[in-house]
Amino acid sequence: xxxxxxxxxxxxxxxxxxxxxxxxxxxxxxxxxxxxxxxxxxxxxxxxxxxxxxxxxxxxxxxxxxxxxxxxxxxxxxxxxxxxxxxxxxxxxxxxxxxxxxxxxxxxxxxxxxxxxxxxxxxxxxxxxxxxxxxxxxxxxxxxxxxxxxxxxxxxxxxxxxxxxxxxxxx
Length: 171
Known about the structure:
The longest helix is centred in the middle third of the chain and has 26 residues, at about 60-85. The strands form two sheets. Strands 1-2 form a two-stranded parallel ribbon. The chain is elongated and about 80 Å long. Helix content is about 50%, strand content about 10%. By secondary structure, the chain is mainly alpha-helical. The chain folds into two domains: about 1-85, no CATH class; about 95-170, no CATH class.
């Protein structure tokens, strides 16, 4: 483990293992060592002809795959953090709002605000969610993706600020 940890510090690209049997005490130790070496850009070379045993327990392979995905996600988040200006908002805007030109605040977006008003009016008139969705589809109203608004989006527009979903989950 000390040699594996020193790969990063020294910049070495090869880890030579003279006694592969030392890694065979645990069935997955050799696989983990190779994985960690590959993670820092190195490879493992075995001095004895015993070589590498490719029999890998599926749960270890799954865990190593999850580890790789986590590292990739962390690298992506770190890169995005560097690109984003300090204090800038991130994520998606709530429906009915857009980022201001400076990218630091939200401001109402008139077309979506109008759709919210129409949806609320239709609901107060007694229309059901499916009927509202059908009426909006006939009127040509589409969401941000260019597709007609679905029942779930309409429910969210009606529920904005009320928190009935959280109350329903607590009940």
